Amino acid sequence: MKVKRRFRSVLFTIFALVLGFVILRQGSELFWKNVYPLGYSRIVRQEAQENGLEEAFVYAVIKAESNFDPDAVSHAGAIGLMQLTPDTFEWLQLGEAETLPTEKLLDPAVNIEYGCKFLARLLETYRDPVLAICAYNAGIGRVNGWLEDSSLSSDGKGLDVIPYPETESYARKVQRNYEIYNKLYY
């Protein structure tokens, strides 16, 4: 009788531990998916595909730039989910038959469309996601200057040092977000 009780007790404990582990694991995944959502998924999917980008990369930038707040406006005047400046928006529209007013950057579809166009151009220009992200944050002219500075770039093609702490932190944040999005969803 004692052996049976003890066996049941051990069996119950093992069952409770396994069940607890499963619940914690599921709860943890739900928590992380809440922190790293797939907002605006239809738009992101479409624009990522049209611009040859990975969805996880686009989500990583949106998470870092605005944390999915479509009304976000930075101290530098960057607007919307992907935090495009009016000047960048205007530049991206050069050569288009019709240009959109700056206010349209508050429309998630427009913001993601032009944010993806910008990311694609930067990736095409630099052929390096870290350089593209640095240019997205600090500007193309600045990154080109860094590449020409032998104290920052030994080969003129990549950066040995990112001289702006804000840009270095931003690049790390986007890389971390990208890794998390890939792990959670892709």
From TrEMBL:
Task: Supply the InterPro entries for this chain.
Answer: Lysozyme-like_dom_sf (IPR023346), Transglycosylase_SLT_dom_1 (IPR008258)
Location of the Transglycosylase SLT domain:
44-150
Put simply, this protein is called Lytic transglycosylase domain-containing protein
Protein species of origin: Candidatus Gallacutalibacter pullicola
